[in-house]
Every structure is written in structure tokens, then in C-alpha cells.
């Protein structure tokens, strides 16, 4: 009977500690939905940006992505977002999709411009930059590095001239009066 009471108390302590950790993680992770005004941006590629991802300015969360879909007429990705009502964005604000790390995790990075007029709720960010595809960049780098080494010696079949022969370097002459090469050293 005594072991049942100890097990019950220990189980209650574990549940309280787990609830504390969940509360702590929720309050510090900034996963709450941002209430504010809606904006829209169009991209050629989202690179994995989905609803729920952060919208940041200078690394600070100011909103969240609410919806991502394809426009059937233009075949562009449309990103809808909610921006904190305290943050007013100029009309020439630009949006770019960025990665949190090499392992993934995307967010929408906003860079406010200097325009006097502000974006209105439901407005559209005109200046966008699509996500950079890391696999494409690595492939281009690997193939460009491999191709440049192959042509260093010159390839006559492709119309390139072989490199001109350099004259052999002259050897220093011995000066018998000083016992050293070219009189240096003292």
C-alpha cells in the first residue's frame, strides 16, 4: 500500500514538471499567432516556406505566414502574412525568403525602405526575392570548378592556343673573388 502512494506522488511531480516545461517552451519560443494586418507577396519559388513560418525584420519576429498557394494564372507562389499592428511598413519594403541554418528552417525576411507612404492592410509587397536553392548552388560550384581545371593546359581542339613557353630562368653566376654567389651575404 505504501508503494502505491509513493508512485502516485512521484507521477504527480513528473506531470507538474512536464507542464512547467511545456509552458516555458511555449512562452519563450514565440509560437503564438501574430494578430495585426494582412499583407501579400508573390515569389517565383518559396523554397519550402509554409504557413506558420516567421516573418522577421532584422531578425526580430514581427509576423507570421498565414497562407501559401499557387496563383493559377501567373504560376507564381502567393504568400499571405499577418504583420503586428504596431509595425508600419513603407510601400517600398522588400521581402526575401531566407534560411535559418544549413539544415533548413525558412522565414520571410522583410527590409523596410525609405518611402513616406505606408503599406495598407491587404496591400502587396512589390519587391521580392525568391529562395536560394542550396543544391543548385553546390551543383554549379562543383561543375564550374571541375570545368576550369580541365582547360588549364589548353585544348587545341577547342581553338585555344597552348600557353607560350617561358625561357628558362638564368642561374646566378659564381664570383670567384668573393667566394659567394653574386657577391651577396656579407
Automatic annotation (TrEMBL):
<dbReference type="Pfam" id="PF02470">
    <property type="entry name" value="MlaD"/>
</dbReference>
<keyword id="KW-0812">Transmembrane</keyword>
<protein>
    <submittedName>
        <fullName>Phospholipid/cholesterol/gamma-HCH transport system substrate-binding protein</fullName>
    </submittedName>
</protein>
<keyword id="KW-0472">Membrane</keyword>
<feature type="region of interest" description="Disordered">
    <location>
        <begin position="149"/>
        <end position="186"/>
    </location>
</feature>
<dbReference type="GO" id="GO:0005543">
    <property type="term" value="F:phospholipid binding"/>
</dbReference>
<feature type="domain" description="Mce/MlaD">
    <location>
        <begin position="36"/>
        <end position="113"/>
    </location>
</feature>
<dbReference type="InterPro" id="IPR030970">
    <property type="entry name" value="ABC_MlaD"/>
</dbReference>
<keyword id="KW-1133">Transmembrane helix</keyword>
<dbReference type="InterPro" id="IPR052336">
    <property type="entry name" value="MlaD_Phospholipid_Transporter"/>
</dbReference>
<dbReference type="InterPro" id="IPR003399">
    <property type="entry name" value="Mce/MlaD"/>
</dbReference>
<feature type="transmembrane region" description="Helical">
    <location>
        <begin position="6"/>
        <end position="26"/>
    </location>
</feature>
<dbReference type="GO" id="GO:0005548">
    <property type="term" value="F:phospholipid transporter activity"/>
</dbReference>
<feature type="compositionally biased region" description="Low complexity">
    <location>
        <begin position="154"/>
        <end position="178"/>
    </location>
</feature>
Amino acid at each position: 500500500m505504501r508503494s502505491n502512494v509513493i508512485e502516485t506522488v512521484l507521477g504527480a511531480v513528473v506531470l507538474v514538471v512536464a507542464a512547467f516545461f511545456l509552458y516555458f517552451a511555449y512562452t519563450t519560443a514565440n509560437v503564438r499567432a501574430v494578430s495585426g494586418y494582412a499583407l501579400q507577396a508573390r515569389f517565383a519559388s518559396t523554397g519550402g516556406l509554409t504557413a506558420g513560418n516567421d516573418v522577421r525584420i532584422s531578425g526580430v519576429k514581427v509576423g507570421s505566414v498565414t497562407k501559401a498557394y499557387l496563383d493559377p494564372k501567373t504560376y507564381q507562389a502567393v504568400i499571405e502574412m499577418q504583420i503586428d499592428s504596431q509595425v508600419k511598413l513603407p510601400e517600398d519594403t522588400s521581402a526575401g525568403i531566407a534560411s535559418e541554418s544549413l539544415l533548413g528552417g525558412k522565414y520571410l525576411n522583410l527590409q523596410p525602405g525609405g518611402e513616406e507612404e505606408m503599406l495598407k492592410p491587404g496591400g502587396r509587397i512589390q519587391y521580392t526575392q525568391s529562395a536560394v536553392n542550396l543544391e543548385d548552388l553546390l551543383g554549379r560550384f562543383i561543375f564550374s570548378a571541375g570545368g576550369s581545371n580541365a582547360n588549364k593546359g589548353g585544348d587545341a581542339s577547342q581553338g585555344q592556343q597552348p600557353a607560350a613557353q617561358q625561357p628558362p630562368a638564368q642561374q646566378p653566376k659564381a664570383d670567384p673573388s668573393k667566394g659567394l654567389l653574386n657577391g651577396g651575404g656579407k
